[in-house]
Methyltransferase FkbM domain-containing protein (Mytilus edulis), 312 residues
Amino acid sequence: MLKLNVILEKNHAVHNTETTYFDSYIDLGCTDYPDTQNKTGLEDVKPLPLVYQNNYFIDKSSGGKVHAKKLYRPSTRNDLNFTPAEKSRIHSCINNFKSDWKKGQSDFWDGDEQYIRRTHHKYLIPGDNVMIEVGGNVGEDAQYYLDTYKPKHYIMLEPLKLLYRKLQQRFKNYTNAITYNVGLGKRNEKFMIKMEGNIGDASSPFFGSGEGTCSLKVINAIDFFSALGVGNFMVDLITINCEGCEYDLLETILSTDLVYHFKHIQFGTHPTLKNLADPVRRYCQIQERLSRTHKLTYQYKFTWETWKLKDI
């Protein structure tokens, strides 16, 4: 994968206050201008719905009352090693991948079964829930969630600029919806990728199709959630469908005590993407780590599933 600044250097991009010039190698519809491509994307993230003052935050979200608390800072967990029993289950999970993945795919994509990812979440209280969607895509899932569960705050992340702009237009009249033009992972990175699927809705840096003309930014997940204020409030549902980023994202969440602030974690899994490192083993390890803090509410193995925080 070719990094964004390399592409821009190759194309000798020139930017001034009136006009930006690129040659045909850069697709203006899906890349950043030079004056924004050096930003991480974290600069635009605002706390929700909190106002920070020194080392405290003020919650003004309920009836005008003001509550001061210490600002939450995620801590690295010290229980990341696997027990012998967990190692044994990981080994079995890896060995059963082919049959489990085939069954998961067959069952999930059978008729309308796939829509369980939308209809499953009847526990959400309309008007009083916080949702985060990683991989907003064209907004089909978001449309259902917004209209059905009426979240108080709905955060969408979509790193591909073409799709991000479509999401902004589609949900411009939803005052409870906020869209960020970034993806989430273990570190801040910038890539140039090829458009895949219909209008780019299957694009991913993990496809292995080579460098392309569309820019994609990924930022450290812990930095994003901290900037948003997660930890000072609970996220009722995070739903993740990001063409391979789920591995880095879930591993990052599970490495800190931030995991205790997600009541429900739903994700789609993409274990066959060419550029993913050891996806089957990582999925099986994620299963074991998630089971320490959460319990399954539905699962199509290696395909789609939701986990609920224990003791809620």
Remarks:
- The first strand starts at residue 14 and ends at 15.
- Residues 1-28, 200-209 have pLDDT under 50 and may be disordered.
- Residues 12 and 182 are 25 Å apart (CA to CA).
- DSSP finds ten helices and 15 strands in the chain.
